[in-house]
Amino acid sequence: MSVPTSIHAYFEIVPRTFRDGVRLYVAYALSALLRLLLPSHFGFVGRWVPGRAMLGVSIGGVRFDVRPGTNDLDLISSKHEPATTAWFTIRPGDVFIDAGAHIGRYALRAAAQGAKVLAIEPDPSNFQLLERNVALNGFRDVTLIPGALSAQSGMLPLRLAPRENTGMSRIEADAVGTLRGGEFEWIVPVAGVTLDELVKSLGFTRIDWLKIDVEGHEVAVLRGAVAAMKITKNLMLEVTEATRDSCRAIVESGGFELLEVEAGDPASNWLFRRTEEVPIAAPPHGDGRTSDLPDSVHQSVIAKSVSIGICAYNEAARIQGLLEFLSAQRLPPDFSLAEIVVVASGCTDGTVDIVRQRAQADSRCILVEETERRGKASALNLILNRFRGDVLVLVNADARLSQGSIRALLDVFSRKQDTEIACGFPIPEESPSRVVSVVEETWWRLHNRTLQALATLGRGNHCCDELMAMKRGFLRSIPGDIICDGSYFGVSAAIRGTTVQLCPDAVVFVDTPSSLFGLLKQRRRNLRGHWQVARLFGEAPYTLELLTRRRPALAAQILLSELLDRPLRTIAFLVIALPLEFLAHSLAHLDGAVRPGYQPVWPMVE
Fold it and tell me: Are 297 and 147 in contact (CB under 8 A)?
């Protein structure tokens, strides 16, 4: 594509807000400068979008959120695949199936023209943004499937694309996690289904346009689409050097003619059209009901599947009761419990045996054993790497949940479709020490008031790690030395342009230290964790203490509300907590000076 045409393609992209405009045109200016002075460092325009929040743009009246620092912006522009874009003459009432929908470039354009759309995308992060973009435009006649098409149903290994090149995730038949170039390439299991099964279950009698862009898996997709191809008029197919001959043989044997080619490297796009009129098929047995889908994808269409993750260290006294409680919980109608994953780390008290016995009685319970205790971050990474659900709920093994708390937490995702992460409402258990109880109770009340105020303002960047839930694709892993995972998840959300939602009905009761010494040790550890996150991201988790410096008016409002509700207890809290906090800060700074690194395994606080 010529330079003037490329420039025109990018200027078709319209920023949605003034701030979006500043960021977009800064990226354009940097790209032009680099292309002129350092062409080898140019890369793609989206790479140079400043900031961490989503960039809001529209193209031809269709709204998109795109990720900065990635090629999302480039992939939705008409500079990408200009010939294929020109071929795609969708009309109102057409049926369009988009296999490998990415974040919705073709699917959203079709929906805007009044077409009926089925979009399939296996990459969890891409799918999440696809959902967001569909909701952003208010499209109704769009069905989204989080999974992969293939030759047969079943779980498939998906090798995730590097963050900056978001369109390159691919199915690999015998993939395992490997080290390549010193970096771990993440493999996640995704639900596979054939196109024939989808078409049958959804009751399609014709397909006007079928697009298949599946990064080398196209032969398998075509083999699972024998019946679907018989009712397809137009096929846009991406092929590689390795798959082109097989693809052409399959498609042409089905009565299609190759009309156009858009050559590329390493892949090209082909446009096929059926040579004879498409027959109108009788409604299939499924008659449009998704109940005919295979089990691996049925929950993705009907109900979001839920994984629950528990990190446990020597919790023999509580783990049995917690597992029984979680297994018996009623979930919202659009959610179903897929699994409870327990990571038992270096346990010496029988925790492993209890979980193993539970797993034998309930196939949803899964034990993952760490032979030594490496810290909560290590256990969380094992959960993040293996959970299968659409939503992951993380519960501390020593927490006690109120009835209905899991249901209430999941309801947040139903009510607010753009929610990526939500947390429960912590209430401290009574401490043996009356003084500690006074301090802890008020501390947690102020903590909850702060989180609620920030969530209301859309600025929540701190999470209660005793009980939280997140959508698949939110994070794939966390650094292994993270001390405060709730802070890390919360600030990660803010950087992604979303906010932590606090759910007051998802009550979780948390253990409290038995003495002021234990409370001091806990605060000292938490402060180190908050500072660690601030150094990693350049942004600190919002706590009441930080608000006193950054947003003093809001901090004063929160403190005044508590003071008016409980004047004597709040005054008693301030008298005890202020000197305690000063001492905790001093000791935390001393820890940093004596041991500059971060210690993921801390002694348990009693």
Answer: yes
Q: If you average pLDDT over every residue of the chain, what do you get?
A: 85
Task: Look at residues 564, 540, 565, 537 and name the one whose alpha carbon lies nearest to residue 551.
Answer: 540
- Res 499 pLDDT > 90: no
Give the distance from CA 542 to its chain's centroid: 22
Measured between alpha carbons, how far is 457 from 323 in angstroms, rounded to an integer?
36
**pLDDT number for residue 5:** 60
Distance (Å, whole) CA 51 – CA 27: 11
Question: Which residues, including other chains, have CB under 8 Å from residue 256's CB and lie 6 or more apart?
Answer: 229, 235, 272, 273, 274, 275
Mean pLDDT, residues 470-482 taken together = 85
Which residues have C-beta within 8 Å of that of residue 273, sequence separation ≥ 6? 233, 234, 235, 256, 257, 259
User: Which of 470, 461, 462 minimizes the C-alpha distance to 498?
Assistant: 461
Whole-number pLDDT of residue 103: 95
Domain ranges in the chain are 1-80, 81-296
Do the Cβ atoms of 310 and 278 come closer than 8 Å?
Answer: no
What pTM was estimated for this model as a whole? Answer: 0.53
How many Cα atoms occupy the beta-carbon half-sphere of 223 within 13 Å? Answer: 10
In percent, the amount of the chain with pLDDT more than 70 equals 89
What would the two tokens of residue 485 be?
A: 């995972």
Topology (CATH level 3) of domain 81-296: Rossmann fold (3.40.50)
